[in-house]
Structures are given as C-alpha cells and as structure tokens.
Specification:
The chain is of the alpha/beta class. It is built from 6 helices and 5 strands; from the N terminus they run E-H-E-H-E-H-E-H-E-H-H. It has helices at residues 16-25, 48-58, 74-80, 93-109, 129-137, 148-162, and strands at 4-9, 31-37, 65-70, 85-90, 114-119. It has a 5-stranded parallel beta sheet with strand order 3-2-1-4-5. Strand 1 (4-9), helix 1 and strand 2 (31-37) form a beta-alpha-beta unit. The longest helix has 17 residues, at 93-109. The protein is globular. The N and C termini lie far apart (53 Å). 28% of the residues are buried. The structure holds coenzyme A (COA). Coenzyme A is lined by residues 8-10, 12, 15, 17-18, 21, 37-39, 42, 70, 73-75, 89, 91, 102, 105-106, 120, 124, 127-130.
C-alpha cells in the first residue's frame, strides 16, 4: 500500500519550525501534502487560500511537496483523498493531550488512518504562529521565525489593517 501522508495545521502563517518539519519528513512517504485547515476555535489573520499560497512559495522548487486546503472536517478530507497517515508536529508535552484527542477523533471515522507525531527541533520549540503575529503586529523583527516572503505578507497585512 502506498504511503499517502498529509501534514495538517492552521499555518497562520507557516513558520521556519513548520518548514523544518516538512524538510525532515516529506521524503519518508510516497505522497506528501501539506493541508491547511480551519480550527473552529481560532480566528485567522490570513485566509485559507493566502495561507496555502505562502506555503507553496516555501516549497516551490520541490515537486514532491503538494499543498491543499481542507475547508470542512479533516475526516471527510481523509476519506475523499485516500489518506492513510496524518503527520502532526509536537513541540512539547503540552501539545500531547490535544494531539491524542484529535488523533482518536479522526480514528473514530477513519479507522485505517494513523496519526504520527514529528517532534519539533529544540530551537523551534517555543515558536508559534500567534507569537509571530504578535511580534509583527508591534513592529518587531520576525526574520528568525518566518521565511522572507511571509515577513513581507505580515507587513502588508498589518499596514492594511492599520488603514
Ligand atoms: N513550528 C512552529 N510552530 C508550530 C510547530 C512548529 N514545528 N508545530 C506547531 N506549531 C504551532 C502552530 O504555529 C500553532 O500556533 P498558534 O496556536 O499560535 O496558531 C500551534 O502550534 C498549533 O497549531 P496547529 O498545529 O496548526 O494546530 P491547530 O490547532 O491550529 O490546527 C487543525 C488544528 C486545523 C488541523 C484541526 O483543527 C483540524 O483538523 N481542523 C479541521 C476540522 C476538523 O476536522 N476538526 C476536528 C478535528 S479532530
């Protein structure tokens, strides 16, 4: 059976910590797609299409990495696309409980799909999209947290919201 993996997340926006995970793991699978999804409990700075476009720009030289959007339930996406592996990044023990719940919920409806955790490298352990947005909103330097084009996109977003 071919190993069709998706790496899911909000990616609002993608950070160098996410990029590092993709670079480390994508080669382990026959097919690897980064899937941008919605969490009902978050409000987003970038639209789902904008988030996907920022990710595409990161990996535009690598045809083995695909980017897609999931606008509804991940379980439905898994079924529609014959996915058998979900990759999630784990930064610390505090991520674990949430990952376990999501993994079990997805397994309720897609019993053949497994969730695998990829551990975030220690230098990126404290990264989060929220921290990046907070620094950028206040005019700080986010160059170590996000690729250059994401930095530009954050600048544009916050300049346009300041009106
Ligand atoms: N580097 C940097 N940051 C990282 C990281 C890494 N390697 N790994 C995780 N993070 C951060 C993210 O930046 C994010 O930060 P934020 O909370 O400040 O935005 C945080 O960890 C967790 O984000 P993420 O991994 O994107 O999870 P999420 O909770 O935002 O997204 C979905 C979860 C969208 C995948 C999930 O809600 C989903 O599947 N939605 C679809 C609808 C559905 O099926 N819901 C039921 C799911 S059981």
């Amino acid at each position: 059976m071919s190993k069709t993996a998706i790496y899911t997340g909000s990616f609002d926006p993608i950070t160098t910590g996410h990029v590092d995970i993709v670079q480390r793991v994508h080669g382990l699978f026959d097919s690897f797609t980064i899937v941008v999804a919605y969490s009902s409990f978050k409000s987003y700075l970038f639209s789902i299409e904008e988030r996907a476009e920022l990710i595409r720009e990161c990996f535009k030289g690598n045809s083995r990495i695909q980017v897609d959007c999931c606008k509804g339930l991940l379980a439905q996406y898994i079924r529609d696309n014959n996915v058998n592996l979900i990759i999630r990044g784990a930064r610390s023990v505090s991520d674990f409980e949430n990952e376990l719940s999501m993994s079990n919920a997805n397994k309720d409806t897609s019993p053949d799909c497994e969730t695998l955790l990829a551990f975030t490298r220690s230098k990126y352990q404290h990264y989060s999209s929220r921290i990046v947005k907070e620094i950028a909103l206040n005019g700080g330097d986010v160059s170590q947290y996000v690729p250059g084009h994401v930095q530009q996109a954050l600048k544009q977003k916050y300049n346009s919201t300041k009106g």
